[in-house]
Specification:
Layout lengths: L2 E5 L1 H5 L16 E4 L4 E4 L9 H9 L5 E5 L11 H14 L7 H4 L2
Antiparallel strand pairs: 1-4, 2-3
The structure holds iron/sulfur cluster (SF4) (2 copies).
């Protein structure tokens, strides 16, 4: 068992700050979901370093992230890199930005 970051979507969703996504040292581990209106963590990539907790508590002052044992995570928070890949693809499909290569990502 190990600790992973758990984001309180209700608190996070009220802020739309996205700050933690810029500080996590692990690539593509925290992203901001504009549809669900919350940051979310890929739990299979999270290394439990708590950098995001410091950012959310100290810089953003929103206190939306707590570390929890992975077996204590709410089911809806058990999102993996694979889930995030599909979600990112969907976000790109909905995007109005012209990214021809992005169509390949969702296939
Ligand atoms: S820093 Fe906190 S409030 Fe801001 S996006 Fe991350 S979890 Fe949400
Ligand atoms: S605990 Fe560390 S690795 Fe995990 S999401 Fe937060 S900043 Fe990223």
């Amino acid at each position: 068992m190990y600790l992973v970051a758990n984001i309180d979507s209700e608190i996070c969703g009220k802020t739309k700050c996205t700050l933690c996504t810029q500080y996590c040292p692990e690539a593509n581990t925290i992203q901001y979901d504009k549809i669900r209106n919350t940051a979310f963590v890929s739990v299979d990539r999270c290394k439990g370093c708590m950098q995001c907790v410091w950012v959310c508590d100290t810089l953003a002052k929103h206190h939306a992230i707590k570390m929890v044992m992975i077996d204590q995570l709410p089911k809806e928070q058990l999102r993996t890199a694979l889930d995030m890949h599909y979600e990112s693809s969907n976000l790109l499909k909905d995007s109005k930005i012209n990214l021809p290569h992005a169509e390949l990502v969702g296939k």
